[in-house]
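RETRY 2/3 - previous attempt timed out on the joint model. Re-submitting the same 344-residue input unchanged.
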Amino acid sequence: MKRSLFLSLLGLPLWLAAGLAMALAIGQPIEFESEAQKRQYDTLVRELRCTVCQSETIHESNAELAADMRRRVYDMTLAGHDADAIVDFMVQRYGDYVRYRPPLQANTALLWASPFLLLLIGGVAWWRMIVGRKRMPQRPEFTQQERETLQRLRSGD
Amino acid sequence: MNLRLLIPLIAISALLGLLFIGLGMNSRDLPSPLVGKPAPAFQLEALEDAEHILTEQDFIGEVALVNVWATWCSTCRAEKPLLMELAAGGIPIHAFNYRDERDAALRYLSVSDNPYQVIAYDPRGDAGIDWGVYATPETYVLDAEGVIRYKRIGPLNRQLLLDEVLPLVEKLRDEQRRNEARRVAQS
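RETRY 2/3 succeeded.
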């Protein structure tokens, strides 16, 4: 009995350490020195892409690389780096692709502009269609001969 | 042909073309922003000797390859015969042993070939992040000044070696010779 108590006491710190490691590994809330640090961490892990799994943020991803990246974000946050510095750090290593929100720059300009371009193209097409419909020939007037024919038909000749 | 019919045809072909290009692109083939930059600094234990601390300087001095590998990575195993050939051909290859267990890595190297000159042990992927490692295997080419000149994500193959790696090594060695000659001339 005593022995098992002793063992479990011995195990406790280990268990806690394992718990912290797990927390880091799955992106659970971890200890920060300030609320601002926690906010920065929480924001960043949702803005950085796991470059292995590609369609996941490092917050969602179970990949080991994502865990490494989270740990680096955590370490840098605790060390006092601001969000821009951390994102820069990742971009310098993994390229712009690591950012979930691509920055507006020369090679992404088309990407950013495409929704507006599509809207513009659609709008122009729609407007042309409306105008085109207005210009469509109205029902032509009956000619004199047609009117006479109609008259004749109506009167039952 | 009627313009009205032509416009949707052009639009659909353009869309299909885009989709087709998208299919053909490998989204892992991301250009590394590290190409053209000096090898990132690191401080890691040597795989063979925990007392011996290695830094990026241990990788630098001549044109060399840096290979990132692990025992759990079967592609790395498949790639190694090629690395052996390169090493036998006189191209120095250094390595990061990435997210691995030291015992497993040492045992692996003791029962199979070892193409590596210097192996840095990176169990937590610390240097991995600094070097922008995505996944194993990865291979970098460093010039004699320690600038990263090439990065390959995924295994090397013979075609890549012939088309890209070996010509680059050749070119970088020429550069190195020229630089050294210039230095001698200046002094």
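The CA atoms of residues 20 and 30 of chain A lie 8 Å apart. Closing ticket.
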